[in-house]
Amino acid sequence: MIFVAKSELPSIAVVGAGLTGLTAAHRLHTAGRRVRLFEASGRVGGVIQTERAEGWLVEAGPNSLRGGLPELTRLIAELGLTGTVVTAEPAAKNRYLVHRGQLVAAPGSPQALLSSPLLSFGTKARLAAELLRRPQPRAADLSLAAFAREHFGSELVERALDPFVSGVFAGDAEKLSARHAFPVIWEMEQKHGSLLRAQAAAARERRAEGRPPSQIFSFADGLASLPRALSAALPTGCVELNAAITRLTPTGSGSTPGWQLTWTNPAGVAQTDEFARVILALPAPALVKLAIGADAAARPLSTLVEMEHASVASLYLGFRRDQVAHPLDGFGLLIPSAEKRAVLGVIFSSTLFAGRAPEGHVALTVMTGGTRRPDLAALAPDALLAAVQSDLAMLLGVRGEPMFLRHHAWQRAIPQYNLGHERFLGAITRCETDHPGLFIGGQARDGIGLPDCAAAGLRLADKALAG
Ligand SMILES: Cc1cc2nc3c(=O)[nH]c(=O)nc-3n(C[C@H](O)[C@H](O)[C@H](O)COP(=O)(O)OP(=O)(O)OC[C@H]3O[C@@H](n4cnc5c(N)ncnc54)[C@H](O)[C@@H]3O)c2cc1C
Description:
Largest sheet: 7 strands, mixed
Bound molecules: flavin-adenine dinucleotide
Mean pLDDT: 95
Structural class: alpha/beta
Strand order of the largest sheet: 8-7-17-18-19-16-20
Low-confidence stretches: 1-7
Distance between the termini: 23 Å
């Protein structure tokens, strides 16, 4: 009998070095498999990008992570990052919504909903009635807005759900699928009927198990610490930057799948290499373009081109403290579409995590665009600043020009799990079934939050190890 050391087993390719791909590559490496990680750009991390400049800490893409996923906590510990974790400041527990041009505290619990000036007496009475709902099977998916209207009425949808959805998906609650965009809430309804009772039951269960409430966190040097540490933990030569994979050609047969990957190196020369399995950790717009199969013209994932994506632009603005009248005592604010403002939301970045602005200064991250105002995501920085200044003055009492500014635009960056999303999931599943040894996941399929992507990376790696 011939024993093969694990590291001599044929290697596995991971395509895409965002959080999904990096997590998958790390898992494969720690399981003793040879792995090669291909990344089209010149850096790892995907949309996670942190910059430190002139005493400011700027997050270009995602700003924070929600804790509560044990695998992610373990991964952070394995990478030696636990000591660098920073949790949201206590003040960031407050969140604001805009209602009739004014900031109103966002209700953070069912009790707070009952006393909130955001909701009329009629809506509050509906909340009490919602507690009596019993589980009932649903034959079909429905929009998130329709789902929430059934439970709480249209006022709550307009004033609270709509801005919340902007904050997560930069999308439209009337189009997003309740089942796919928020599967946890969908399942809560299936089990409990009432969402308010479900939430109370989840809190009771957490307390009984001695689990603390999940916290918002980042790292002392920003979110990019995570991809940097994941990449540094991989063996030398494992990460191939500036390598956009264009083609996957099957080379195996029967029960022994194999793949040849083609990419073009920075000198413009086409390169190939062979792998036992391939993990595609790519967003839908990248999956669409891949030639997969013996036929170079085959684009089995081309249908994903129809998956709507939100484009967003952010302005990171630094001010002297005396330029902003509002105490900025919170995570930030979100604005319902009914308010017809240019801004989707503002993160009070220097309140959220300590040490993110020079002494005596504050930082705001202003989010714009989304499916609501895609035109704003295409504006040049000066024009965008001009477009948001009156909102900032009115809502936060911001005066004068920012003394520090960074602009980031993300085109087609956030997938919308709209009604009918199952047809895209079906196309991905079919592609995997038709192509043994190919595993696909990440934000197009597994959820858009960073913990979802980390969990997807681990799952993909486990499937590739098993399959
Ligand atoms: C502006 C913005 C703000 C967000 N805010 C938050 C937040 O605060 N909290 C949160 O939890 N989530 C947030 N998200 C969502 C979250 O950041 C993403 O869903 C997640 O980072 C996606 O990770 P990924 O690895 O799946 O994809 P990506 O990060 O997109 O990585 C994919 C990688 O694949 C590479 N690639 C593409 N094509 C090829 C190819 N052909 N060959 C090789 N490589 C290729 C790309 O260059 C990229 O590096 C935000 C997203 C955006 C855009």
